[in-house]
User: What shape does this take?
Amino acid sequence: MWMRKGQEQAEMTKRAWGHNGRGRSVEELLAARLAGEPLPREAAYRLMELEGDELLELFRAAAALRTQGRGTVVTFSRKVFIPLTNLCRDKCAYCTFARPPSDPKAHTMTPDEVLAVARRGREHGCKEALFSLGDKPELVHARAREDLARLGYATTFDYLLAMSRLVLEETGLLPHINAGILSAEQMAALRPVSASMGLMLESVSERLLRPGEAHYGCPDKVPAVRLRMVREAGELRIPFTTGILIGIGETPAERVDALFAIAELQAEYGHIQEVIIQNFRAKPDIRFRHRAEPSALDMMRTIAVARLILGGEMNIQAPPNLTPDAYGMYLLAGINDWGGVSPVTRDHINPEAPWPHLQELAATTRAFGFRLRERLAIYPEFAARPEFVDPTLRQRIADMMCLCEDFT
Assistant: This one.
């Protein structure tokens, strides 16, 4: 169904723009997008290659489209990061989070450890508990099966479900689930104990599954598998986060293809509440430790094209901690959200990159002419629609929204 929807959209944009937009100047392409015409794929490929004055025009158009759709408020979620287990069956070339069973840092959190982090977060005003964990480690690691048996669970999913419920009931923090590939049945089971879920699409390039590439040895990084989960989340009406990871060996055109795959799913289901544009960071203990990182300019170009593809209404975020000296510039390229920021826990996916202090984040946001506002793990526009909120969570979410801080 979503493929047919995408084909219909492609035909519509061909009629609106001509076959691929090549007959128009960049100025004309951008003006047409701001006037409400969808951006065709061929035009997006072209925009990803802009430089000089044309690149500045791209940034201005993306920022204007953002302001049309989202105004001048930039949001973030105050969270705690709960790395339930860092054992994983995948072997991504860029990942420092997953640890082999023999690594002294390999760890599965106990319920007491989970609650201690959540309670500390509540004391510091956090409202989101981000559960992040390795993908199905018990399928390949005896250590994972042993850890689960000691805790009294058969699978990582069973333990995740129990810990999500425990955090919700004991602390009131709203879980956001980022647990790798989940089935439709598993997502349905998590829905009453989580405000939202997520899975980074990362890329739609099958090429990255080859030996030596970023996703070699990663059964859960097959694009069709990840797209299936995003689609099934839409069918279940789950507020969902996805996005792309840039700098892992993909081409500019492949970034565009991934963004269009997201846009097509959003057109079909309307459940994607935010799209992340995240930059690869090299680390000394990964296979890609010598890989060049994307520049801030490369991030800005990708953010701007993402805004033009996804439209003014989409919430688009870029992590501020991964470009500490230049993240404010992303506001000029069209973002409207900083993602989850924690006053308590580090970013366990990028442990070398500390979160900015909230007052610094607010000051940077103001310096670029915007106002910072706190949000929940579920965005207000989704919280206002009953089909996106499990009945057991509606009152709790409504009460917590009233507690969100506005940094004026």
The chain has one domain: 70-407. The beta strands are 73-83, 128-132, 174-178, 196-198, 240-246, 272-279, 316-317, 337-341, 371-375, 406-407. The chain is about 40% helix and 15% strand.
